[in-house]
Amino acid sequence: MNKRWERTDWFREARFGMFIHWGLYAIPARGEWVRSVEKLSNEAYEPYFQEFRPDRYDPRAWARAAKAAGQQYAVLTTKHHDGFCLFDSEFTDYNATNTPAQRDLIKEYVEAFRDEGLKVGFYYSLIDWHHDDYPSYGDRIHPMRDNEAYANRSIQFERYVDYLHAQVKELLTNYGKIDIMWFDFSYDDMTGEKWRATELVNLIRSLQPDIIIDNRLGGDIKKSEPEVYAGDFYSPEQIVPPGGIVDENGVNVPWEACITLNDNWGYHAKDYAYKSPKQVVRALVECVGKNGNMLLNVGPDARGEIPVESTRILTSVGEWMRRNGESIYGCGASSLPKPEWGRYTQNGNMVYAHVFDRGIGPIYFQGLKGKIKKARLLADGSELKVSTPWMAEHYSDTESGAFIHLTGAELPDDMDTVIALEIE
Fold first, then answer.
1. DSSP for residue 97
2. Cα–Cα distance, 165 to 395 (Å, whole number)
3. Which residues are CB-contacts of 266 (< 8 A; sequence separation ≥ 6)?
């Protein structure tokens, strides 16, 4: 437990990261599962490999966008389920160097994000729909799951697992220090030691002792004595867990909710269901208020650019973070109960009140009567006075509470108005 806590120290301080799903599926532009959903064979998918030429790929622009959004780290898909590798791998020809791109796109990503001072993570899919030794017919999600022609193919799964291990070794040897290894994903009996997970984690730790690993190799991270491959952090997807994540002894487990900006991970040209900057900020606050992180996804297009709408949202979130980031970085859950008007985050004796709902009258802080040394609007540092309105003295349930009056009927910031409280 302590080792995990040490390794995730920077991660729990950072709280906000960028997920990037990018690959051949950006060309059909119907989401990253297009091969599985449309049951496309290797041959049917091959034209995308032949024309992959991201002429506007500029990872420095991505890194600047992440930094401006207030994100502290990034995780990029080095290989997704379709088996295509953005890196130069000696174990397959199915990689970016053999497309019209003709270069190692991961190398450029690592350098760009490091130069901006951001931590660097690799996503790697345990699943591979391109590899001949990965189970196809009868598998639950393989594109060829129902194709009779694949029914009697003989595969050597151990050969695939060797390939997986060899590629992970490449990724963790050829690009300097890597901060996160983000595996995706175990399912049915394809879990744990099926991937030779203990051996894989031991290999990873020998190459990159400080790296943190997600929990998708399998195992149960919530056990008091989890498996060696159960990971350093829990990875809920498209949901903020109602009570955060704790182990069977009630001890906090580091966790990170991965969330899309629209309804797809990979680029989808017709998906306009974007979340508002307000939704993103409030979800981030909810994660931090439950001792978690948020990994917010972008899906660059076939030419290598982050969609304009995604950039617009990131810019707006970044503007809020610039003024209010102190209530996110290094913060966690507060010991105070969740208030009616929003949420709390806390860092030591600083409690941050995230006011989402203006309500009527002064803002009420249950249990804080006589305990607030100082109250300031975080965005601009302006003083807020703590005072008890005359009418409140008539109600017994307000006796332990403090009140702060905000002028006007509207909140200063409709997304999230943060009040910084220095507590005795």
1. G
2. 65
3. 21, 22, 23, 25, 26, 31, 32, 33, 34, 80, 299
Give bridge partners of residue 122 from the DSSP assignment. Answer: 76, 181
The three-state secondary structure class of 282 is helix
Give the neighbor-by-neighbor strand order of the sheet with 73-79: 212-213, 180-184, 119-125, 73-79, 16-20, 292-298, 255-260
Instruction: Give the sign of the dihedral formed by CA 141, CA 146, CA 149, CA 151.
Output: positive
On whether the CB atoms of residues 126 and 217 are closer than 8 A, the answer is yes
8 Å CB contact between 404 and 419: yes
Instruction: Give pLDDT tens digits for 289-342.
Output: 999 999 999 999 999 999 999 999 999 999 999 999 999 999 999 999 999 999
Q: Report strand pairing: 417-423 vs 372-377.
A: antiparallel
Give the pLDDT score at 396: 61
Q: For residue 314, what are its two tokens?
A: 């990131």
Q: How many residues does the chain have?
A: 424
Q: Which residue has the tokens 């690799």?
A: 122
Q: What does pTM read for this prediction?
A: 0.97
- CB 61, CB 304: distance < 8 Å: no
User: What is the tens place of the pLDDT at every residue in 152-175?
Assistant: 999 999 999 999 999 999 999 999
Q: Which residue(s) pair with 83 in the sheet?
A: none
* pLDDT band of 1, cuts 50, 70, 90: low
The residues, ordered by sequence, that sit 6+ positions from 9 with a Cβ below 8 Å of its Cβ are: none
Residues paired with residue 234 on neighbouring β-strands, in sequence order: 255
**In whole angstroms, what is the distance from residue 48 CA to residue 28 CA?**
8
Q: What is the pLDDT of residues 78-91, one digit of tens each?
A: 999 999 999 999 99
How far is 417 from 266, CA to CA, in rounded Å?
Answer: 33
